Amino acid sequence: FATQECCVQNAAREYARRYAAEAETLEGFGEVPEVIPIFLIHRPANNIPYATVEEELVGEFVKYSVRDGKEVNFLRRDSEAGQKCCTFQHWVYEKTSGNLLVTDLQGVGMKLTDVGIATLAKGYKGFKGNCSFSFIEQFRALHQCNEYCEMLGLKSLRAPPQKQRKATASKSKNPTNPSAAKKPGPKKGREHRDFLSSQH
Questions:
Q1: Could you read off the pLDDT of 129-153 as tens digits, one per residue?
Q2: What is the tens place of the pLDDT at every residue in 55-84?
Q3: pTM score > 0.85 for this model?
Q4: Catalytic residues
Q5: Alpha-carbon gap, residue 160 to 112, rounded angstroms
Q6: CA 154, 155, 158: angle at the middle one, nearest 5?
Q7: For the chain, which residues make up each domain, given as ranges?
Q8: Class of domain 1-152
Q9: Half-sphere exposure of residue 195, counting CA atoms within 13 Å on the CB side?
Q10: Biased composition, Basic and acidic residues: where in the chain (predicted)?
């Protein structure tokens, strides 16, 4: 268990470093959440030969997200750290094409510890997380983008249902094309441009 904990937290730490490198170049983004390192130590004389060691975090400990993805508390939604944690989750989700999600984000201020990772059932690039892949689906359904998601240019997770509706609407226009040519012609063009812009 200790080795898995180290593996998960240090993998999340690497994603957080890459997220920080991208976010810190943006004007006005400010401080970025950091996943603190965790170390595995071997104690051969002890009954439990392996243990983990990490920096002690002093201050108010806050859970910005929980493993099942359902908890949305005020500190997560309204605080800068909470919003940036949600953006971090969204960034990782997008960078891994929806195959991996860093979850169970908690800590003091911008310093996070004891995080979890959910991957699809087969894992992602040889890595398997310690959380159910259903958390990825729950995140996709519950995540609400904030100003930091917009600053990073992350795609809205609400976009696919809109595309389906527009695709269905364009299918229904084909049979009525002769009668629609007089009046709704310009509207068709506008809807098509909206559809294209939502993909970019």
A1: 888 888 898 888 888 899 999 999 9
A2: 999 999 988 876 554 554 545 667 899 899
A3: no
A4: 104
A5: 31
A6: 135
A7: 1-152
A8: alpha beta
A9: 16
A10: 191-200
